[in-house]
Amino acid sequence: MTPAARLSGAIDLLCAIQNAPRRPADATANAFFRERRYIGGGDRRAISTIVWDVLRGWRRLQWNLRDISGDISPRLICAASLLLGGETMDNVRRLFSGERYAQKPLTSREDIALKDLEGKELSTQKQPLAVRLEYPDWLESGLRETFGNRLPDEMEAMLGTPTLDLRVNLLKGTREQAVRELRRESLPAEMTKLSPWGLRLDGRQPVTATQAFKDGLVEIQDEGSQLVVAAADARGEHRVLDYCAGAGGKTLALAMTMENRGHIVACDVHEKRLDGAVKRLRRAGVHNVERHLLVSGDKWAKRRAGSFDRVLVDAPCSGTGTWRRNPDARLRLTPEDIQELVVKQAQILDRAASLVKPGGRMIYATCSLLACENGQQIDAFLKRRNDFIRLPKEQMSELLPTELRNKAQFSLTPLRDGTDGFFACVLERVVTDTKTQEEDAAVTLPAAEDPST
After folding, report:
1. Is residue 420 marked as binding?
2. Catalytic site residues (predicted)?
């Protein structure tokens, strides 16, 4: 495709994203490209780069176009993104040539609006902090609570392009072997600093087309997510529950740490997500996993109360820690979403806790930056449940790097750790006289619950 055709495709994709405001942009993009299979891999990446650059700079672009009367169309905002990214006005006009596969020429209104942006920067100190750092105004206090004076630096790091992290599947080979395999296909991967199984690539790369991926030697998984699995310290003699398993990313990693022994139950309320895990499990050579669909009135949890050595709760959350990958999520998030999520997380914690055996552990994790979803959620849970404690730090998993091993809970950020934003806390169930397993067994899953991620 020509540069003009790629820009035209990006504008069409941005229109599709705007027409589905509550749907994640990556889901819209996947559907968009499925319907246009004639678009090759390189062109898909180029089109996606244009659109994701627009989404990452959305508030700043709107601020730079604030004096324009009328609606700011996808055409106008894509062109503004190019100009504020260093493109010249002459080149932008050429991209809007009206020739085959190109967008129609700029209108006089668009031309006048864009001409004023030539030579300017996307970011400026004149912009309000929330605009310059691309977060909702109403979320300022929540982010300040987490970061304090570090807020500008932490949120600046959130504006960057994320790396592409892989987890090497030790059931199939070693990290060194995976590095060699990927480099043979012109993908230079470096070992991650924190995860013992991680590899890192720069930017968007066609990993799924490599033999290493097809053979199950590598899986796409952020380093922070790998560290959550490391914190679980699941072993071959354990019964493990992945309570919010989704399509099974962490389930696969748990199976690896267990060396394909023991037993894992992957639960979710969405059948399609669980079905999506089947192909991944087969590719990875995993055979110690049972899938279970959670439904209203299900007696499954009651029958298995207090029976798991490890329960991983990868809770549904705001996703604020993944804004580098999902910049559109900043635009969709509302205060009501946070309120609903905090209630849901507490309910899920209580139900998952009933499945942990005495002496067993529950690992609570989110990809959120907000204290109300992280440490405060754990504090509230421990007030409700005197049969759980934070795991003593000397018992934390040796799979974790030294800097994380001396904490029962930890957080990760792009600025400090080079990962997505994550929170994880390891809790241990202790024996008490005030709460019995019979009481726990009365807990069932209500119809309104959704423990998926």
Report:
1. no
2. 367
d(CA 416, CA 437): 41
Instruction: Confirm or deny that 298 is annotated as ligand binding.
Output: no
- CA-based torsion, 8, 14, 16, 18: positive or negative: negative
Q: How far apart are CA 15 and CA 97, in angstroms?
A: 20
Q: Which of 78, 244, 367, 372 is catalytic?
A: 367
Which DSSP symbol is given to 286?
-
Residues 6+ apart with CB under 8 A from 254: 229, 232, 234, 240, 242, 264, 310, 312
**DSSP character at residue 396:** S
Q: In the annotation, is 15 catalytic?
A: no
The 10 Å Cβ neighbour count of residue 50 is: 20
Q: Length of the chain, please?
A: 453
Token readout for 188 is 């230079």
Q: What is the pTM of this model?
A: 0.90
d(CA 379, CA 337): 21
Q: What does the block give as tokens for 341?
A: 């999520």
Separation of alpha carbons 373 and 120, rounded Å: 39
